[in-house]
Structure formats: structure tokens, C-alpha cells
Amino acid sequence: MLVVSLWSNAMLQTSSSSPFPPSANSSPIPTGTCWLTIPTVVGNPGLNRSGLSTMAEHLSQSELNYPFKLLEYFNGFRMSKVIFSACEQGVFDLLMQSQKSLSAAEVAWKLGASEDGMERLLDALVGAEVLEVELNQGTGLFIPAYYSNTDVANLYLAKDSPKSLYDMIIYQSQTIYPLWNNLGDAVREGKNQNEKTFGLSSEDIFSAIYRSEDEMLKFMGLMNSSWVIDGHDVVTAFDLSRFKSIVDVGGCSGALARELSKAYPASTVTVLDLPKVIQTAQKHFCQSDDTIKLQEGDFFKDDLPAADLYVLARIIHDWKEEKSLPLLRKIHAACNSGGGVLLIEAMLFENHRGPIMAQLFSLNMLLQTEGKEHSPSHYTHMLNGTGFSDVQVCRTGKSYDAILALK
Ligand SMILES: C[S@@+](CC[C@H](N)C(=O)[O-])C[C@H]1O[C@@H](n2cnc3c(N)ncnc32)[C@H](O)[C@@H]1O
């Protein structure tokens, strides 16, 4: 088996649970792992993709006896829909509000659903270990069943929980799911499927994403809910306390800016986004005790405010390099001396063989945008090419990672 490590001599770890940087065939990288990259050595980002992919990406041998994992993959969309439908129908909210566990008939009656359909949905959620069930003694074949939320359902699936992922689920169900129905065409054509799925031009991606006020709110809700679970980790991946003025470029609802403000109370944090996004953020996402500022602007067309640190969370992955490189150059020019840029993205492994979540996100970018996910060395290359240096990479081990570079 031939293994090539782009990382050998290329990365110095600044802190890690492992003494070694990830090699090209490494399975999951240790969590909370950061490297200081040496720009002159981190070179051609295509090097490790040159057909040297003999490392095992095949399913385990046991699948030959029976394809358990394959069948699980085939049925993945069904499982997603079970969660999505239960969320959309308010199952988790009802069970959270209820003082006692409820029968399928009670849930169906309260939510205006069929008893048979609801019972099957609730049973599938029990099978998925998202709900719990108590079985009472019955007569004959009838065993009364009473359903309740698990702690996980209360925490993440009920709408009113402070850690609710409800908005993420609604967007996945109503926008991402129909887009993924056109994955085959996206792969064949190599372009997003906004036109085929929603009848909108595939050129201006944010006109498509913000095609109605309702869609804009749903998208902003999706963006917002990611940072409920990932925000703290990405803003504390590095100590950013020395940056006294921070601009979250394309900061959307302000969720990440609030996390920054919480972690660095001595810094001012400004969200810069398109006027209609800022207005919607003011109307729907602002909190009475907000410490963040909101500023309208177009990061491609307008001057950027001077700042010590620019945060670009899930921005670079939206665009072709002919747009993202000039944006990074513009940020470098506006940045105060001694300042920097923090990219937050789901990073691919160097050899592009994982993590599966980043690979799926990259396909999602194909379906919805003009961009893609990249590896650490690719981001390093982009940052060095636009004037930044001292690039440090931190994998959080969760959905999103952080890359800090200095002016
Ligand atoms: C994928 S979202 C990321 C949002 C946010 N950074 C986050 O991670 O939650 C991209 C953001 O860039 C904003 N955006 C797109 N084009 C922009 C432009 N030309 N000027 C300013 N913001 C823009 C969008 O409105 C959106 O909020």
C-alpha cells in the first residue's frame, strides 16, 4: 500500500492530542488539533490527489457476508424523512410540553394525523432511539404503548429548546432535500441545481437562496442553528482576545458574532451582510441584550470597515476562486496591521478521503452554490497567495474547523 503524506515536514503542530500530524491515509484526525503551517513547504494542493489512492476506502469485509452498511446507506433518506416529518408535525414539541407520555392515538388526535400513520412514525422514532416507549399490560394482541421524548429529542428536536436544531431540520427537509433529488444532474453538469429545482437562475446564488422572504428566513434559521452546537468550539479554537475589533463578513443572523462577543467581551463585533439580510436579522434575530453591531454592505462591491480580525464563516466555500481570492485580497488590504483573518469551514482531509461530513457538504455546495469544500493546505495556499502568513489550522473534531492567518 502506497501512502503519501503531504504533511510530512509541512506542518508543525502547536497543540495536539497526538504527536503526529495526520498522514494521507489517516482515519479520523484527533479532535481539537491545531497546526502552524509553514507556507513555503505547503505546496501544490493537488499533489496528494494524483491517483495515489490505494488506501482502503472500501467497506469492511463483513459486508461481503451481508451488506448491512450498504442497506443503512440506501435507507438513510428514509431516516432523515422520519425525523423531518416528526419535526414538521410538531411531535417533539407536543411530547416535550406534555406532562405525561402519550399514546399514538393521543398524539395523532392532537396533531390532526391518522392514528395508524402516527403509530408507525412514533415506532420508527423509537427504533431510531429518538423516542422512548412504555409498554403497558394489554389484552390479547393489543399492548398499549405510551411515547415520550428522550433527553436528546428534548434538547435538539423540540422547537423551544435553547439548543434546538428545528430550523436546520426545516431547511434540510424543504430546501436541501428537493435539491439533492437532482444530485445526478449536478454531477453530470458540474453545476448547481437551483434552476431545475426551484426555477431560478443558477448564476446569482444568493438571489436563488433568498428567493422569497420566507426562504430567506429559513436560510438564516439554518445558519443560526449551526452555531448553537458549533459556535463556541470554532470561536475558541484559537485565543482571539488580542483582536479588539472583529468583523464577521457575511455574518447573516449574527449567531456566530454573538458567540464571538460572549467569548471576547472586550472586543467589538460587527456583522456585515447584504442590506436585506441585515434588516431581517434586526427584525427576527436581534436580542434585547445584543452587544453586536450590524452593518449593511456588499463584500464584493463596497469598502470593508477596518478591523483587527475578519471572520469568514462558510463564505469561501460558496464561491469560485475568481471571486474568493479577490475578497481575501480586499480583506488583507482593509485589515489593521497585526490583524488577521479567521476562516471557518468544514475542512476535507488532505487526501480528500474524508471526513464524510465535509465530503457531503462539498456535494451540497455543488448543488446549491458555485463553490466547494477544501483541504487545509488548499486554504493555506489561498491565504498565502492573498498576502496572509502564519497560517494555523485547527480541527475541532465536530462539523466545522478554524483556520487563522495573520497580516
Ligand atoms: C453560507 S452563508 C454563511 C453565513 C454565516 N457566515 C454563517 O456561517 O452562519 C453566506 C453569507 O454571506 C452573505 N453574503 C452573500 N453575498 C454577500 C455579499 N455580496 N456581501 C455581503 N454578504 C454576502 C449571505 O447573505 C450569507 O449571510
Automatic annotation (TrEMBL):
Uppermost EC category: transferase
Endpoints of the signal sequence: 1-17
Domain O-methyltransferase dimerisation: 71-158
O-methyltransferase C-terminal domain residues: 180-389
GO molecular-function term, one example from the UniProt record: acetylserotonin O-methyltransferase activity
Pathway connected to this protein: Aromatic compound metabolism; melatonin biosynthesis; melatonin from serotonin: step 1/2
Purpose: Catalyzes the transfer of a methyl group onto N-acetylserotonin, producing melatonin (N-acetyl-5-methoxytryptamine).
Active-site residues, record numbering mapped to chain: 317
Protein name per Swiss-Prot or TrEMBL: Acetylserotonin O-methyltransferase
Record InterPro entries: COMT-like, COMT_C, COMT_dimerisation, SAM-dependent_MTases_sf, WH-like_DNA-bd_sf, WH_DNA-bd_sf
EC nos: 2.1.1.4
Subunit structure: Homodimer.
The entry's keywords: Melatonin biosynthesis, Methyltransferase, S-adenosyl-L-methionine, Signal, Transferase
PROSITE patterns associated with the record: SAM_OMT_II
GO biological process: melatonin biosynthetic process; methylation
